[in-house]
TrEMBL record:
PANTHER family: L-ASPARAGINASE (PTHR10188), N(4)-(BETA-N-ACETYLGLUCOSAMINYL)-L-ASPARAGINASE (PTHR10188:SF6). InterPro entries: Ntn_hydrolases_N, Peptidase_T2. Substrate binds at R220, V221, G222, D223, T243, G244, L245, G246. It comes from Abyssalbus ytuae. One of its GO terms (cellular component) is cytoplasm. The active site is at T192. This is N(4)-(Beta-N-acetylglucosaminyl)-L-asparaginase. The record marks D191, T192 as: Cleavage. Transmembrane segments: none annotated. It holds the Pfam family Asparaginase_2. GO terms for molecular function: hydrolase activity, acting on carbon-nitrogen (but not peptide) bonds, in linear amides. The lineage of its organism: Bacteria, Pseudomonadati, Bacteroidota, Flavobacteriia, Flavobacteriales. CDD domains: Glycosylasparaginase.
Amino acid sequence: MITTLKYYYRLLPVILITACNTTQTSEKGQKAGEVKEETKEAVKPIVISTWNHGLPANEEAWKILSKGGKALDAVEQGVRTAEADPANHTVGIGGFPDREGNVTLDACIMDYQSNCGSVAFLQNIKHPISVARKVMEKTPHVMLTGEGALQFAIQQGFKEENLLTPESKKAYEEWLQQSDYTPVVNIENHDTISMLAIDQEGNISGACTTSGAAWKMYGRVGDSPIIGAGLFLDNEVGGAAATGLGEAIIRTAGSAMVVELMRQGKSPVQACKEVVERIREKHKNHKDMEYLQVGFIAINKQGEYGGYSLRSGFNYAVCDSKKGNRLEDAGFKLSAEN
Ligand code: SD4
């Protein structure tokens, strides 16, 4: 289904025209191991987000950034587009359920002052990112989970609704016939939306939201709501966010590591590449290696950006005032077939 969605976006040339004109310029022709280091002229404001669903999400974020709004508002509103889309089976409503048929959502958000909020294993609320923001702003905590997160969301005025759409239910019933949990690289269970933005003030914020790995165990939480794994930023340095097999990203504190490498002087692409290589090295004899995919996006304080993944097929959307809104293919280490 997600393959279909990606294909759909690829076929649509320029329908998403706003102030940040969307162009369909996925940059092709990279070879495994190659790093595109055409760094990326620094422009601010800027927003970058994972996968094809990043295009409409960037459009929404850009409406805020281009008017001088805050990066925090931009990333929240941006990723809400993916959460609200029932055709998106990896985020929000319509997300594929766990192996017991429950849609459980993970999300986190972080601002330029290192405030952060997160929800994990949240059910029946369409916009976990906005609940995460409320956790950040209204509680003394960073993270709420499961029933507690749901209760808090209801107290905050969020509406409970069934997130299992007929389409996702059908996919789940089909999956039940084999009940095989083998994640497929780049397909349907690896499409979290992570977004990083710098506003006109030069402040960075980030957001990450997902329904997690399809057909996961009940109660499983991935990297996406974990500050330091699925998302991390330091306003003096830059930000990073992840997509892919959450277990591998948690094991290596992925996004925090990317930011630390940028602090040491690496470019966003080089930092993402180094962490991907570390993850590969750590997993070379691991059972997860067979289907392991991880990808990172990163942005530094100057507004330079980049992405890198273990296997081919990962792309991200970037929007700025110079080049508009476009998709770019990330550099990668291995081809998706390896
Ligand atoms: C997870 N990292 O729950 C998420 C899934 C994902 O792109 O990234 N999909 O493991």
